[in-house]
Design a protein that fits this description.
Layout lengths: L8 H17 L5 E8 L10 E2 H12 L7 E8 L2 E8 L1 H9 L4 E8 L8 H8 L10 E2 L6
């Protein structure tokens, strides 16, 4: 993994547009808001973090050199807001491990509160694990 392979602000905006467009094709109207969200309560939509990427990202996050908002879906369910991390697991974990309580995020939500989401289904398949609890895989092992 090389630094050039990491997400940029422009690529993250493109990914955000792709997610919103995908929901529009399904007839689901979602909106986006740029804000800070609690890092420790984000539910992962992947099952692990690769150590090689983490070792590259951690110092960049520490020095403020990888200041790209993560992508989050926010659903309002019977017990309150639930936030699923769509993109930015390694950056979020770096923030958590550095003692930071929140992350900058593009938050996707619907005025309806909840809607059918593949990201929610994937998180459920992985056991709705918080990003802070994701295992970091040894070098050479990939997710």
């Amino acid at each position: 993994m090389r630094r050039e392979d990491l997400v940029t602000h422009e690529r993250q905006l493109h990914s955000l547009g792709d997610v919103i467009e995908g929901y529009a094709h399904l007839g689901i109207r979602v909106e986006e808001e740029h804000r800070r969200v609690p890092a420790h309560r984000l539910i992962a939509t992947q099952n692990a973090i690769e150590s090689e990427k983490y070792e590259l990202v951690l110092p960049l996050v520490r020095e403020g050199l990888l200041d790209v908002p993560v992508l989050v879906e926010e659903h309002f369910m019977h017990h309150g807001y639930v936030r699923y991390l769509i993109d930015g697991h390694t950056r979020t974990r770096a923030h958590i491990d550095l003692g930071r309580r929140s992350v900058d995020a593009f938050v996707i939500y619907s005025r309806a509160g909840d809607w059918p989401s593949n990201f929610v289904r994937v998180a459920d398949q992985y056991g709705n694990v918080l990003v802070r609890d994701l295992p970091i895989l040894p070098r050479g092992v990939r997710t």
